[in-house]
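Hi L.,

You mentioned the student needs an example of a multi-chain input paired with its predicted structure. This one should do, with 384 residues in total across all chains.
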Amino acid sequence: MDETSQKIIDAAMELIKEKGYVATTTKDIAGRADINECTIFRKFKGKKEIVLTGMEQEKWRGNVSPAIFQNVTWELQPDLEMFMRNYLDRITPDFVKLSIGLRAPQIYEDTRPQILKIPKAFLEALILYFEKMREKGKMPLLDYECLAMTVFSSAFGFTFLKASFNDQLTTVRQEEYIKNSVSLFLKGIEQE
Amino acid sequence: MDETSQKIIDAAMELIKEKGYVATTTKDIAGRADINECTIFRKFKGKKEIVLTGMEQEKWRGNVSPAIFQNVTWELQPDLEMFMRNYLDRITPDFVKLSIGLRAPQIYEDTRPQILKIPKAFLEALILYFEKMREKGKMPLLDYECLAMTVFSSAFGFTFLKASFNDQLTTVRQEEYIKNSVSLFLKGIEQE
DNA sequence: TTTTTATGCAAGTATTCACTTGCATTACAT
DNA sequence: ATGTAATGCAAGTGAATACTTGCATAAAAA
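Structure written out for the whole complex:
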């Protein structure tokens, strides 16, 4: 990836984060990337291609790799906290805003599969973790898919609501939220 | 509100749900409402005013009224299930899609306060409920804001993820999700 | 019946957008 | 030194968009 193309992608993704795909014009992108507008079309077939190329870069996909899920201690509390912390550290309000900006109907058909990958990766990792914990005899038999959805939704909901309303909805801090939520889940899980 | 204006509003809101604010054109709206495009501008100052008028109608605000929160039994399990069911029945995937469509930067300044009202109403009702339960001696002293955020985020996250990915992320059904989540929260809360 | 109001219809305006073209310039490789 | 690739610059194109205008018509109110 040459430097100019990268500048174009970065500018486009940042603008989409701020204004959404439809409201982001190629003129905007050129301005932000500090290049001429026609250069965009020498590097890419069109506006859409910029975005789709950008979405393939790890940089613009939340740096979610399987490695995240490997440092488990097989102790419910630290592991669940680690899962949530990993998620909230990567799927920041900025990243959520970008994902929303990529939901425009003109491109959502193409972007949705990529966007879907992130929650799917976390959810499946959680389910797998619960199943292994069960094998180790450290967890009762439960509906793990449902349980994982609850844990994941609470993480997703928190970061999304922060992205949408900052502190206007709640002033609860991330770390406080993680500790409290996990402690709530723990007792709910263990007691069964 | 005369019939024609209402048809325009309904058409606009439906289209925004499907395509978002920016991609919804006045031509689209006229077509869907089955009226002439220029009639729109006889009834409203501009595209923006249609939306802002629509958002003031209960119909397009999720029918969230304080009455929802009044049928409480002061028993944690049925009450929490009722809260979640009320939320998920009103804030459907369709409604979530509309909210996202209203996040366009051209109008978000104006729509955000209205959008914010809904989660705020639920969250505050939950916190108040916990405090009253505490007064009745039916709940331990906890960080209620944090607890309410966890419960609310899990409801919000579920409906949002359904709106975004249908059953591609999870096939868990609403009622199953409510029962399981509440049972998890219950044990987490009561045990303290 | 007469007048007013609401709406349709057709044409148009100014602006913006994604995308193009032709030519000049710069920088780097050979 | 020469050729080539990348980019700037300026101008332009066709389509779409929000919004307007003037006039005809039909229904409702007086």
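You could point out the following to them. DSSP finds nine helices and no strands in chain B. Chain B touches chain A through 51 residues (CB under 8 Å).

Best wishes,
N.
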